[in-house]
Design goal:
alpha/beta; Rossmann fold; seven-stranded mixed beta sheet; 7 strands; about 40% helix; about 15% strand; globular; EC 3.1.1.85
Length: about 280
């Protein structure tokens, strides 16, 4: 029986670099799929060949019988990504990107995380993160009403954003575009968010790293930036986008793209407005 692999699609660079452009892989977050990145793909295609991937059990990707762990998700992305690429991951996808950069270090040239923290839940030595009970409640309710749970989580994604109503409507539209994700992927994805702790891994990353946050994020509070910065080595940096919540690339695609492309320019990954 053929091995099940994630749905993925690669788009050619539209800039001067053309076929010589570097590769960029986009990894979405919990409950959604790669279409969530549609608003920023055109700007990225001016510099990169872009591959979008649906996580297993979400979007158009099948759900294998493997144990649904962070390592499994990273290996699934590795199975379909180019041999060497820059990786951008949002929320849960950011954890996948960080794990991928550890497990397959030679294949990851740089990492951008969006609305991601190395640990999503609060601990005695991590007091500004989300209360663990929030994710536990989502997981419990998801067992009974997973569609309703998804919709409520989308609303939390956008809470306090300057364009909150428009953002929620857009996320709902994206959610239903490919049909609902698999229940097991949702529940076990929440377990990954609740249990993962990559704090000690951040300082060990050898690749350039940018961690982007939304000023009004209710899932990853912006106050966590002060706790994250001391964990970064000389390759890591942070950026905060004002007036947006947990989905900055949807709320403010132009501002988000500018922040990310400036990072790539500083590291010589992008040389000017039309090269990749």
């Amino acid at each position: 029986m053929p091995k099940l692999i994630p749905f993925h699609n690669t788009y050619r660079c539209t800039g001067k670099a053309g076929e010589q452009a570097g590769d960029l892989v986009l990894v979405h977050g919990w409950g959604l799929h790669a279409i969530v990145f549609d608003d920023i793909v055109p700007a990225l295609l001016e510099h990169f060949r872009v591959t979008v991937v649906d996580l297993p059990g979400m979007g158009q990707s099948p759900l294998p019988n493997d144990e649904y762990t962070l390592d499994f998700l990273a290996d699934q992305i590795a199975s379909v990504m180019p041999e060497r690429a820059h990786v951008l991951g949002w929320s849960l996808g950011g954890l996948v990107a960080l794990n991928l950069a550890q497990r397959h270090a030679q294949r990851v040239a740089s990492v951008v995380t969006v609305a991601t923290t190395p640990r999503f839940t609060r601990a005695d030595d991590w007091p500004r993160a989300m209360r663990p009970q929030i994710l536990r409640t989502f997981a419990e309710v998801c067992e009974e009403d997973f569609e309703g749970t998804l919709v409520r989580f989308l609303a939390l994604n956008c809470k306090d954003s300057e364009n909150m109503r428009e953002d929620v409507a857009r996320l709902k539209e994206i959610l239903y575009f490919c049909g609902l994700p698999a229940r097991r992927a949702l529940i076990e994805g929440l377990v990954i968010l609740a249990d993962t702790d990559l704090r000690t891994a951040l300082s060990a990353l050898s690749q350039p790293l940018l961690m982007v946050f939304g000023e009004r994020d209710n899932i990853v509070p912006v106050t966590l930036v002060d706790d994250i910065r001391p964990l970064l080595n000389e390759h890591g940096e942070t950026a905060v986008i004002e007036r947006v919540s947990h989905v900055p690339f949807l709320s403010a695609p132009e501002r988000f793209s500018a922040v990310v492309l400036d990072f790539y320019r500083r590291h010589g990954i992008v040389t000017d407005a039309a090269d990749g």
